[in-house]
Structures are given as structure tokens and as C-alpha cells.
Design brief:
By secondary structure, the chain is α+β, with helices and mostly antiparallel strands. Helix content is 17%, strand content 48%. The chain has one domain. It has one helix at 79-95; strands spanning 2-8, 11-17, 20-26, 30-37, 42-50, 57-62, 73-76. The strands form 2 sheets. Strands 3-4-5-7 form a 4-stranded antiparallel β-sheet, with no helix packed on it. The chain has a 3-stranded antiparallel β-sheet with strand order 2-1-6, with no helix packed on it. It is elongated.
Length: 100
Amino acid sequence: MRGFEIFHNEKKIVIGVNSGIIIVSCSTDNLQVTGFDDDQFTRVEWLDVSLNTNDSIRIVASENIAESAEPCFTEARDRQSLLNIYLAMKNDLLVEGLLK
């Protein structure tokens, strides 16, 4: 499993997926880790924490994650909805001549 070891003030959380996307976003006051688990076909949220001045954040990429942290939120993705969005976008690009 591939993913990240994320250290927030030395507290470690390990996040990984066999297939999918992990998104780590950090603003001046928030750290959030979300993504998509393609094996389960779900949208996933693992971490959403407020940040304070002088907080320490370290992110290490890893290809050897044995077990991922349990997500705090998951939502099933609707395959037909995604297909409809894709087909609509494809049609728009064809009409605009950007796709052949």
C-alpha cells in the first residue's frame, strides 16, 4: 500500500490506499487529508485538524504502508453519476473542438 506518514506535533498518522488518490491540503489554520479509495469506490476523509502557530507538520511519502488509519468519514461514490459527468464533459469538449 502507498501513502503518507503524517506527523502533526509529533503525533503520527499513517494513511494509505492500494489504488486511489490521497490529497493532503494545508492552509494557515487547517490540515486536511482526504481522497478516493478505488478498491472500495468511496470518497474518504482521514484527518481534519485545526492548526495553531508553531505547530509542526512533517509528511513522508511511503510505498510500504502495512495498515492505514481508519477514516473518520467515508461516502460511497455513485458510478452512474460519475459516468454522466464524464460523458457531459466529453460532449462539451467535442462541441468546442478540443477533443476528437
